[in-house]
Design a protein that fits this description.
single chain, mainly alpha, 2 domains, 9 helices, about 65% helix
Length: about 325
């Protein structure tokens, strides 16, 4: 058997039939695809959308509406909170201003309290100093009383000179017709049972200083006034004659030069107000200088002046004394 006998011959009609079958299948698939495209092509919809068929979509839509309402409510609450925050910030600023003012006031009060405490300490120190001074003066008074008693017992008292009957100040008692001894220094010093007296009674005419007669026959320090030599005794004579301005000039000149007796008389004159309204401040100043100068009768008169002074006048007098 040859090679040609082994291979069967190719038949053309079969191939053509197979090709026709394939073309028919392809055409069928093409037609089927076009029909499916035509079937799923969307048609235009007019009017309202129909409700979603799925209930979950409806629930989501309701939840969205609820969230939108909650958002609007929260926005309103946020605006209210912002207004409240602004008001709270304004209140905080106002309270800060009040706190600053209170702190300043408290600082001022603390400073004022410190000043008052220092002043109280100064007053307490001054009180202790005065108490010590009073004790020392009391001892001096007792010593002088003893000496005066001894002198009175040993020496007869001479009669007062005729000039002692000159004009006395209006508030002074009339002189006795019989001679009387000069008052003891103890009568001029303050004691614990002596109440403060108001200014007015004369302290010059009836009460001359210890060791000096009413006519001032002890001249003391002499000063030049109006071209002539004058002393404390000349001032006393002018006072007894009612020439208070002249007495003030004489005592003022001597007091300025450190005469303790002149300082005592000048302070007493200012206290009485013989040349004008009473000047309690300068009266206290001159009497204090007289006490410092050793003129003990000035203590009692200074005590009277202090009882009639206000605190402001007393502080002004102390300021002058401290200034020298």
């Amino acid at each position: 058997m040859t090679a040609n006998d082994a291979v069967p011959p190719i038949r053309l009609d079969r191939y053509l039939a197979l090709l026709a079958l394939l073309l028919a299948i392809v055409l069928a698939f093409v037609v089927l695809g076009e029909r499916q495209k035509a079937a799923i092509r969307p048609t235009p919809v007019t009017g309202a959308l129909p409700p979603p068929p799925d209930p979950r979509l409806a629930a989501l839509a309701g939840e969205r509406d609820r969230l939108l309402t909650e958002q609007a409510r929260l926005a309103d609450g946020l605006a209210t909170a912002e207004h409240a925050l602004a008001a709270a910030e304004a209140d905080i600023e106002r309270l800060k201003a009040q706190v600053d003012k209170l702190e300043r006031d408290l600082s001022a009060e603390v400073e004022a309290r410190a000043v008052l405490e220092r002043r109280l300490a100064e007053v307490a120190a001054e009180r202790d100093r005065l108490a010590t001074e009073v004790q020392a003066l009391t001892r001096i008074r007792e010593s002088l009383e003893a000496e005066l008693a001894a002198l009175a017992a040993a020496t007869p008292i001479p009669p007062a000179p005729p000039s002692a009957a000159r004009q006395e100040p209006p508030a002074a008692p009339a002189p006795e017709p019989t001679p009387a001894p000069a008052p003891a220094v103890a009568d001029l010093l303050p004691g614990p049972d002596i109440a403060p007296e108001a200014p007015g009674p004369a302290v010059h005419g009836p009460i001359p200083p210890a060791g000096e007669s009413a006519t001032g026959d002890r001249p003391g320090r002499l000063v030049i006034l109006d071209g002539r030599r004058t002393g404390v005794a000349d001032g006393i004579k002018a006072y007894q004659a009612g020439e208070y301005d002249a007495a003030a000039r004489i005592w003022g000149k001597a007091a300025a030069e450190g005469e303790a007796r002149a300082q005592f008389h000048l302070g007493s004159l200012l206290f009485e107000g013989r040349t004008g309204p009473p000047d309690l401040v300068m009266a206290y100043v001159w009497l204090s200088r007289a006490v410092t100068g050793g003129h003990l009768p000035a203590i009692e008169v200074r005590r009277r002046v202090r009882a009639a002074m206000t605190e402001a006048q007393y502080e002004a007098a102390l300021a002058i004394l401290e200034a020298g």
